[in-house]
Amino acid sequence: MNIKTRLIIMSFLQFAVWGAYLTSMGGYLASVGIGDNIGWFYSVQGFVSLFMPGLIGIVADRWIQAQRLLGFCHFLAAIGMIVVGQIGMNMGNEVTFAQIFPWYTMSVAFYMPTLALSNSVSYSALEKAGLDTIKAFPPIRIFGTIGFIVSMWIVDLCGLQHTHAQFSISAVWSLILGWYAFTLPSCPIKPHAEKKGIVEALGLNAFKLFKQRKMALFFLFSMMLGVSLQITNGYANPFISSFAADPAYQDAYFTSHANLLISLSQCSETLCILLIPFFLKRYGIKRVMLIAMVAWALRFGFFAIGNPGFPAVTWFILSMIVYGVAFDFFNISGSLFVDQETDSGIRSSAQGLFMMMTNGIGASLGMIVAQGVVNAYTHGQEVEGQFYTVGDWPTVWLIFAAYALAVGLLFAWIFKYKHTSEKA
User: Fold this and answer.
1) pLDDT tens for residues 298-333?
2) Among 73, 234, 264, 393, which one is most buried in terms of CB atoms within 10 A?
3) What domains appear along the chain, each with residue ranges and CATH number?
């Protein structure tokens, strides 16, 4: 089996773990009456990303090979999800925030670092094989999106998007990848015999990147754009599902199959990933990031004017399509930019730093603020034993759209980066 195929399998499993619950967990929490806490479940992913990716990246750079650490982290993440699923099954609609949140936190604390670790494993293996990472990695990463979609569809089509079973499915994927990671090619670590100072030994060299104006601004705006990352993951499902509380939309297909509609976002990703090599080499990181910021504004704006009925559902579909540009042109291009701009000795640490700024500080602040906005304009309503989050959703989405657009304008004005156009 060639290296690309092996990395494709890893990428598929990596995101299948996340796809099992990331877009449907909000719907489950709302359905059991703890929808007011959705923001905490998504923001904790950001909180743990403040330090876990960086710490794990340091270990991968200095002491334990990245592919082995990837396996260990997935085994531990699986344990947390197994417990969450068991508590949800035993408690039913009586489950409380305090019962499942600690175990969920443990799981995501070990899962979030694997996003950066899997990138490091891929880049290392591709370089060993003499391949161009900018050209070779995006087609491999596509299968991560496919894994995410497959996992979403399994949860939706099996009628599990509003149940605890989604967490158990995530655990199964993690256990499989935990085992598989130990079969992947070895990643280099710095020789223990080499003399190095305390800063270097702890892997803190990556923070020196903030001394470079270009990188400091890049990480700052990555954090600001990271605010948008988890908002639709947390609230798209309960938003779309909430139309079931309105008699006019109770029979609309997507009110009971929100995950299938949302999965169009990931389908869009599979196409947009293929565009990254061309756009990144031809237009550079600044224009690519600007495109992503405008796409985020459109993502939220289309939600504000759509509904599950025809023809207004077209706006929802357009929102799903632009998500591919919003997510990939930011996350994937940003990761590749960091890889190209940093020394190999601090690569895992630098990827961890990028994750900390985006999925850490940015996503944490974003979900805390988003929860406040959503709770201010919406409220829970019980219909035939099912809880829904209803209210002034259009205003909620327009507030998020205005923020993304403002960040884009600020980025265009402040971030300076000279790019020499290349043929992709």
Assistant:
1) 999 999 999 999 899 999 999 999 999 998 888 888
2) 234
3) 3-187+200-414 (1.20.1250.20)
